[in-house]
């Protein structure tokens, strides 16, 4: 990964995931529907990013317009697999992404932030 550049991208007909590097952090920007079609692509890029041992792994859901259980499963799996060795953070700022996480009480398990800047800073 190179700082500030998009290194990898995965797309489906309904959404996309872009892997970027920013100051020692891996940022996965997700857009569109994070559903059964896009979740495996997100998991692939999470696995790729984790091989570089970033200090922070951020999954940015700012541009997600539908968050399905398959997408939430990737968030939980990422947290449980990598949370002991890397700070896993999720950006969810609107009712389309934050509400499903609240209803399933995943906000109790995941580190959820309102903005990418807050997630990168850890506050």
From TrEMBL:
<dbReference type="InterPro" id="IPR036513">
    <property type="entry name" value="STAS_dom_sf"/>
</dbReference>
<dbReference type="InterPro" id="IPR003658">
    <property type="entry name" value="Anti-sigma_ant"/>
</dbReference>
<protein>
    <recommendedName>
        <fullName>Anti-sigma factor antagonist</fullName>
    </recommendedName>
</protein>
<dbReference type="InterPro" id="IPR002645">
    <property type="entry name" value="STAS_dom"/>
</dbReference>
<feature type="domain" description="STAS">
    <location>
        <begin position="15"/>
        <end position="123"/>
    </location>
</feature>
<dbReference type="Pfam" id="PF01740">
    <property type="entry name" value="STAS"/>
</dbReference>
<comment type="similarity">
    <text>Belongs to the anti-sigma-factor antagonist family.</text>
</comment>
<dbReference type="GO" id="GO:0043856">
    <property type="term" value="F:anti-sigma factor antagonist activity"/>
</dbReference>
């Amino acid at each position: 990964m190179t700082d500030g550049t998009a290194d990898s991208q995965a797309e489906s007909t309904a959404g996309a995931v872009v892997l970027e590097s920013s100051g020692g952090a891996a940022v996965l920007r997700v857009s569109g529907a994070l559903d059964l079609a896009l979740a495996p692509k997100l998991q692939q890029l999470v696995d790729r990013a984790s091989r570089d041992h970033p200090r922070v792994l951020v999954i940015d859901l700012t541009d997600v317009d539908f968050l399905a259980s398959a997408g939430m499963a990737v968030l939980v799996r990422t947290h449980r697999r990598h949370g002991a060795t890397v700070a896993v953070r999720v950006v969810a700022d609107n009712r389309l992404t934050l509400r499903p996480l609240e209803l399933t009480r995943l906000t109790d398990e995941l580190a959820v932030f309102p903005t990418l800047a807050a997630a990168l800073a850890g506050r």
